[in-house]
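Subgroup meeting minutes
Present: P.N., E.W., G.H.
Scribe: E.W.

1. P.N. recapped why we're keeping a running log of single-chain structure predictions: easier to compare across weeks, and new members can see raw inputs and outputs side by side.
2. G.H. added today's entry (363 aa).
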Amino acid sequence: MLDRRDILGWLTEGRECRLEELWARADAVRRERVGEAVHLRGLIEISNHCRRQCGYCGLRAGNRQLPRYRMSDQEILDCVRQAEAFGYGTVVLQAGEDEALTQERVGDLVRRIKADAPLAVTLSLGERTPEELACWRRAGADRYLLRFETSNRELYERIHPPPPGGGGTAVHRFELLRVLRELGYEVGSGVMIGIPGQTWADLTEDILAFERLDLDMIGVGPYIAHPATPLASDATVAPAPAGEALESSQVPADELTTYKVIALARLACPRANIPSTTALATLNLAQGRETGLCRGANVVMPNLTPARYREMYEIYPAKACVRETSDDCHRCMSGRIRSIGRVVGAGRGDSPNRLARQESDSR
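Output recorded in log:
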């Protein structure tokens, strides 16, 4: 168990000799609770259309400079077959909140994937209605990723204007995570690190929220400014109140802080699946993902999106590996995993946390 003071202390620790203790603890817990396997999730970015105006995301509806695309069902199924050929256990269908991805279309697509391939299906399609989420679960979807981004409600609502038709509050997003759990999904969430206005106290509360939510998957990554978003020019950070300079200072959107959050997420949720993300590779192409895997992570997500679409899925600029083919990405990831003495995972790679919860519920 980590308490608030422990988390804040580690987040603000700057001494490498002390941080080596954190890295070692996180890696040991990872090894004991989820093992040596690194599971590969084939990422398919099926659409870059989005109805939202989120202040940090390059896919926001107000970005008129971005060419838009939607993959056809056949293109998606071709990527699924490629995932199966590569030996991946999971495909991740990711998109902005695209209103063309209707309940019926996504449900039919999930059913076709499950009929054709023995893969787990993860959806990451933003905030959807409980009815849509229930339909997709019945169709066979196994997992859902919905990051809460920040547990600070005021900050959340500052950077997430409500969508057309209402909703979209921080409370609403946490409520959807509860709905996902009740529907039987393997539930994933996470945060951005270094959002303008985010404090160390906020990030501490985020990590406590991981534990409170009992997450099955946790995805964290640094905030990387996109020039076509309001946050790109937002350098305003409130001054720290007297006597609270440490807790109330701005969190940096850097590589070191991301590793700290991965390590603390592993300690807070020992049996969760935690990816070492593309955003880390964007900050450090040579070793970012490998270092994340050595500090608590156990998942990577090679990209299966067809090359003609990858650069258009621009949540943030200069994303790593956008010019690689799926074959290149597969070979590279497998080699990187072996280079650090780990093994490529076999099978679906279901969350040990969810499996343990199911076993407990069945007693």
